[in-house]
């Protein structure tokens, strides 16, 4: 079955500290992977995506993510967190499946708090 | 360019009434998705439209929920005989291809 797991429901970091948000997936085809951010009261904004090629992808706002096929993971990282990064982060997986429509499966989200 | 827009931004309705939520996707995007997000929860897939193909309705929670997409553009999500458990934020997203989705700001529905 297709699924996305984000093991950390909530993370708190100090401003300026590094950040890593974990994402693991199960998918029966070549995965396309995404990270989205949702600020309070807002819709979701795409941070970055992985389709193929270089397994380290750069996104907006200084975020990056690394695809590790052997671990079925796509962890999101940022070297130095800013107070404005406090938000909900969603990992998602999709990709062409022979037997189903083009769904994108979202993880449950990780809530990030930033301490000044 | 213009992003995905949704209207109304907020809707308060009485239990048992019907509501219609509107989504205007990005021009040229062939795919359109509806999701529901309850307070503090993740995204619950509702329905998916892709071009002229039959929509994937597998996520609709009951037959009180329906959606249509006219002319391959604007979409309307209709909830009949609303219940309190329908209270949530309803998000629409459109996609040009390859599953990359652009989300609207959502409609917050409150059923009293």
Separation, N- and C-terminal Cα atoms of chain B: 37 Å
Strand coverage percent of chain A? over 45%
Q: Percent of residues of chain B in beta strands?
A: over 45%
Spans where pLDDT lies below 50 across 5 or more residues of chain B? none
The number of helical elements of chain A comes to: 0
**Largest β sheet strand count, sense and barrel closure of chain A:** 6 strands, mixed
Based on secondary structure, the structural category of chain B is mainly beta
**Apparent shape of chain A:** globular
* Average residue-wise pLDDT of chain A: 90
**Number of separate strands of chain B:** 10
Say how many strands of chain A there are.
12
Sequence stretches where pLDDT stays below 50 over 5 or more residues of chain A: none
Care to describe what's here?
The complex is a heterodimer of chains A (116) and B (112). Chain A has 116 residues and is mainly β. Chain A contains no helices and 12 strands. In chain A, the strands form 3 sheets. In chain A, strands 2, 5, 6, 10, 11 and 12 form a 6-stranded mixed β-sheet that branches. Chain A has a 4-stranded antiparallel β-sheet with strand order 3-9-8-7, with no helix packed on it. Chain A starts with a strand and ends with a strand. Chain B is built from no helices and 10 strands. In chain B, strands 2, 4, 5, 8, 9 and 10 form a 6-stranded mixed β-sheet that branches. Chain B has a 4-stranded antiparallel β-sheet with strand order 1-3-7-6, with no helix packed on it. Chains A and B meet through strand 5, strand 6 and strand 11 of A and strand 4, strand 5 and strand 9 of B.
């Amino acid at each position: 079955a297709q699924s996305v797991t984000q093991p950390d429901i909530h993370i708190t970091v100090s401003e300026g500290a590094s950040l890593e948000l974990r994402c693991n997936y199960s998918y029966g085809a070549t995965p396309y992977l995404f990270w989205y951010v949702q600020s309070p009261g807002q819709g979701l904004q795409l941070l970055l995506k992985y389709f193929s090629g270089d397994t380290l992808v750069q996104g907006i706002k200084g975020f990056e993510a690394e695809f590790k096929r052997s671990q079925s993971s796509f962890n999101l990282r940022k070297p130095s967190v800013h107070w404005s990064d406090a938000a909900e982060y969603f990992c998602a997986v999709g990709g062409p499946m022979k037997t189903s429509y083009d769904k994108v499966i979202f993880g449950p989200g990780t809530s990030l708090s930033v301490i000044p | 360019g213009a992003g995905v827009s949704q209207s109304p931004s907020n809707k308060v309705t009485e239990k048992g009434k019907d509501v219609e939520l509107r989504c205007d996707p990005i021009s040229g995007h062939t795919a359109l998705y509806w999701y529901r997000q309850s307070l503090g929860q993740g995204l619950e897939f509702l329905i998916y439209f892709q071009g002229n193909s039959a929509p994937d309705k597998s996520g609709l929670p009951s037959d009180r929920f329906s959606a249509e997409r006219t002319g391959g553009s604007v979409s309307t999500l209709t909830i009949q005989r609303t219940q309190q458990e329908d209270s949530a934020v309803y998000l629409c997203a459109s996609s040009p291809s390859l599953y990359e989705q652009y989300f609207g700001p959502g409609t917050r529905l409150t059923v009293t």
